[in-house]
Amino acid sequence: MRALSRRDALTLGVGTAAALAAPGRSRAASNGAEVEIAKFTGGKTAEPGRIAIDLPEIAENGTAVPLAVTVESPMTAADHVAEVLVIADANPMPRIATFHFTALSGRAEAATRIRLAATENVIVVARTNDGRFYTARKEVKVTIGGCGG
Amino acid sequence: MRLARVVSQTRLARICWRAGGPVALAALGLVLGLAPPGNAEKSGAAPLALDADASARPWVRYHGWPTRDSAQFNSLAALASPPAPAGPRKLDRPLTGDAAKGRVLVADRTRGGSCLACHVMGPAGNADLPGNVGPDLSEIGKAGRDDAWLFNYVYDARAYNPDTLMPPWGTNGIFNEAEIGDIVAFLKTLTTPAQYHDVLDDPAKRPTPVEKRDNLDSMVNPGMWAVEDKAPALWALPGPNGPACATCHRQPAQAFEAWAAAMPKWEPRLDKVLGVEEFVTRHAKATTGHVWLMQSEENTALAVYLRFLANGGTIDVDTQSAPAKAAYGRGEALSTRKVGQLNFACVDCHSPQRGANKWIRGQWLAQMRGQLDHFPTWRTSQQAIWDIRKRFQWCQVAIWANELPPHAKEYGDLELYLTAQSNGLKLNVPGIRH
Amino acid sequence: MAERPRLKVPKEAKKGEVIEIKTLISHAMESGLRKDDSGTLVPRKIINRFTCEFNGKAVFACDLEPGMAANPYFQFTVKVEESGTFRFSWTDDDGTVVTADEAITVT
């Protein structure tokens, strides 16, 4: 039931994305986020830190939530962030995007807009060119509308 | 003769003939395919197709909206709701109810928003973001209220307070008596202050949302694509009668620098208040022949565009002339009419004396002033531009009332009243909102 | 992808400067989970890849999934060392590729 309501929650149309989300904060079994992260890191541990995630504390709805990610790095040819994975731990599909940076990027930072099905964590994992991993996460409350959104 | 027929049939040409020599000559030139006049704004009352449909006829509710028919309850056009009770009912037997069922019911958003839309209720349903339009009920179980009082208050609070905001859950058939019994049983278990999981869940501590997006940046607001791409293309598009908007209005940015800031306006030829959207429909039909019904993409794009051209201008709708005053009075009365199965008036949510500046579940209820300065608005939750008439229609359907067609005179009166609340503010269209 | 992509790229920059670029393209980004009015699932159709190259060299790219919002928007940075041309590309699930170019003068 809960998985179904999250699927419905990505409908665009009447009401907010969270309109059909079951009330309550306890989330069901994982949507596969951990598996995706493990695939990305090859099972290696990702160190917490070096990543700043800019997300609203409360999103008015889940259709276009602004996200900005910055990873501390000298961004030289020898030492730069190569890939950044963005995951949502309660979306129907956990992967949201993978950013690819190069030494020409100047800074390892990107901003975009994402879909969130319900209140959940956005998890970011960064990989450097020499195979180190860093991670950070942030919770976004997706507003439940008043009468009908 | 073709020339005579075209001249006599187009109102456009009639206006140009009336306006005088040089313009008449230019109109003749237009008809013959030569250089057009270009500044028709100066030549008197705009032609309007008075008999044409302004919106789809018959009016059919939008696809994807709730299909409930609420004809047995008040709308802005008709009164039909069951009357308020004279007083509280005596319970003919002791109240029984299942508190566990009640706990589910108070959080059920399919039942008109649920209680949590307006009330904090302790641990009800592990609720995220409860509202605070109504009092915090977390300790109602030890507030000294007996079963009959609790039952009657939920069944129909008008029995105690004729001026209440509470929907008449029983009288209007939203919850049946057994369910109200379950809700009362649950309320009686509420005896400790709410324990919020998160400071954001506490409506008293939740930060008021502030709209900070740059609504005029087309990278941020898809509503601006109407201004940058759609409307200019429509402006130049010739209609079935021959001309395009551009034929008579070659410099819209100058010509309409202030026009939209004075809309909506009383229109004597139609005996109603005319808003920008309906004006576009009737004026385009009368001149170009384009059929741009209200709520069509073309109509909405042009309505955004015409208001955008007046951005920065001070909103100043007429409320002083006799017909405008009367329309304002009607609009004000409509804003206080209880409509729908949930029995809400506009003022219940949008007047600072009632529900405005409070939370309805996780949404902030805005007051009336400061709304019409940014309509039409891009709605992120709908991924579409909504004008004010569609917003009215949605509010109606959301409170389980039947909406009216977009051109309804009641909506015109309400729009005039509402826009007047923003007199003095600057137009800033298109907005971007949830 | 009916509308033209929108780009915000500085026209000029200093050598070694890190400039900011913004891009936006109109696209419904159908996730494959949405039902239409008759209750039928609308098939997935998204832009799945965005790339930015400068003078033919890859600078920034993104693999997009259905969790990306409609009308994909990106803001990112580039360190410019020479004048040249940015080429942006958006690839749809159906194989269509839209590209757009912007020149920059670097002194």
Per-chain topology:
The complex is a heterotrimer of chains A (149), B (434) and C (107).
Chain A: H1 2-9, H2 33-41, E1 47-48, E2 51-54, E3 58-59, E4 65-71, E5 81-88, E6 95-101, E7 108-114, E8 120-128, E9 133-142
Chain B: H1 2-9, H2 11-19, H3 21-31, H4 99-105, H5 147-156, H6 177-187, H7 224-235, H8 245-248, H9 252-255, E1 265-267, E2 272-274, H10 276-287, H11 297-308, H12 322-334, H13 346-350, E3 359-360, E4 363-364, E5 377-379, E6 384-386, H14 388-398, H15 409-420, E7 431-433
Parallel strand pairs in B: 5-7
Antiparallel strand pairs in B: 1-2, 3-4, 5-6
Helix pairs in contact in B: 2-3, 4-6, 5-6, 7-11, 10-11, 12-15
Chain C: E1 6-8, E2 12-13, E3 18-24, E4 47-54, E5 57-64, E6 73-79, E7 84-92, E8 97-106
Parallel strand pairs in C: 2-8
Antiparallel strand pairs in C: 1-3, 3-6, 4-5, 4-7, 7-8
3D structure, described in words:
The complex is a heterotrimer of chains A (149), B (434) and C (107). Chain A is 11% helix and 38% strand. With 149 residues, chain A is mainly beta. In chain A, strands 1, 3, 5, 6, 8 and 9 form a 6-stranded mixed β-sheet that branches. Chain A has a 3-stranded antiparallel β-sheet with strand order 2-4-7, with no helix packed on it. With 434 residues, chain B is mainly alpha-helical. Chain B folds into 3 domains: 1-37, no CATH class; 50-81 and 209-434, Cytochrome Bc1 Complex, Chain D, domain 2 (Orthogonal Bundle); 99-201, Cytochrome Bc1 Complex, Chain D, domain 2, CATH 1.10.760.10. Helix content of chain B is 32%, strand content 4%. Chain B contains 15 helices and 7 strands. In chain B, the strands form 3 sheets. Chain B has a 3-stranded mixed β-sheet with strand order 6-5-7. In chain B, strands 1-2 form a two-stranded antiparallel sheet. Chain B is elongated, with a radius of gyration of 26 Å. Chain C has one domain: Immunoglobulins (Immunoglobulin-like). Chain C is built from no helices and 8 strands. In chain C, strands 2-8-7-4-5 form a 5-stranded mixed β-sheet, with no helix packed on it. In chain C, a hairpin with a 2-residue loop joins strand 4 (47-54) and strand 5 (57-64). The N and C termini of chain C lie far apart (35 Å). Chain A binds chain B through residues 12-17, 19, 23-26, 57-58, 60-61, 63-64, 119, 141, 143-149, and chain B through 64-66, 107, 109, 112-113, 116-117, 125-129, 131, 197-198, 200, 206-207, 209, 342, 360-363, 365, 380-383, 394, 397-399, 433-434.
